[in-house]
Amino acid sequence: MQQRRTVGFEEEFLLLDVGGVPVVGVDTVIDWMHTNLEPDESKRFKPELQRVQIESVSLVHTTMQTLRTDLSTARAKLATAGRDCELLVLPIGYAPVCATPHCGGTEDSRYARIHNRYREMAQTYTACGAHVHIGVDGDDQAVAVVNHLRPWLPTLIAVGANSPFHDGHDSGYSSWRIAELSRFPGSGLPPYARSADDYENRVATLVESGVLIDAHMSFWLARPSDVYPTVEVRAADTAATVDDAVLQAVLTRGLVQTAITKLEAGIEGPHIDHQVGAAAVWAAARHGLTGPAIDTVEEVQVPALRMLGNLIDWIADELEEAGDTAVAWRLLTALEHHGTGAARQRIVARLGLKELIESFRLTNGPCAQFH
Length: 371
Hints:
With about 375 residues, the protein is α+β, with helices and mostly antiparallel strands. Helix content is about 45%, strand content about 15%. The protein has helices at about 25-35, 40, 65-85, 110-120, 120-125, 140-150, 155-160, 175-180, 195-210, 240-265, 275-285, 305-320, 325-340, 340-350, 355-360; strands at about 5-15, 45, 55, 90, 130-135, 165, 170, 185-190, 220, 220-225, 230-235, 290-295, 300-305. Strands 1, 2, 3, 4, 5, 10 and 11 form a 7-stranded antiparallel β-sheet that branches. Helix 6 packs across helix 10, helix 10 (about 240-265) crosses helix 12 and helix 10 (about 240-265) crosses helix 13 (about 325-340).
């Protein structure tokens, strides 16, 4: 068995009042963490762009079992903090209800600059995503791996779709978060880059042109991390359940290791037409796994489930090598039976948005997440 690539996970969560409306509560929750947890634990919970959000950062893992335990523990702590602070913590990709047009920017100088630069787009953006980090060997390899990931990012969007509701109604999209993200400059599939220097020059051009705040910021769905020795994939909405999160980690690690194997064989990532790539991202956000998808290499429309099957076939050898085949099939079977987070939200929302929020909120009980 090959040495497993490291995996880390960042999750963004919404903070709501008892009525289900986003509430400025991150400072209260962070204070609770500092009071009730050890310093090494509390520092893993951080503010995000909006003060109605909080982020949880995992440790670095090599097995999906330990990652799962880590994510479960973090969610339990957030649930306890939410209960004690009289807030609801929601693992969902976009606020289903927003009573006010502005949900409060974090009082951080960089975040303040982001709000000032993008104005209404940033001030009303209540999106929460799942960020998967997979270890790689150097900047050039990271860029080359991202080139290989580009055809599969729409499928990861479809699998991880968990935000169908917006402003109190069904948006018609499986991932309204991706639809909202597309309004920002430089969103969607990352550009094809020939090297780390080429990638950095592309980012620098966007910063110099004024559409990005700094080189640490981009809206692409995958990128070489500028903090860790990893590739960071940000295609999925925040996962409804820990199992949904682990599935994203399993698929992403399989894709990264497959890319590295291809690169070692001298095979570079495929070039994709920019407009076809944008269409594939839109189709994934619109339909999730329940409708058509776009094969960006063949440039044809295919069922989304076929694209998922193609992805599994593409990474099958690396799943086996990493010892992830069994967990992948268990999680895919659960996905087949229960649907994506978006599909589950729509089922529960038939009873009303109040029931949806109650079913999806983090709790410490045996029914901690809806299945």
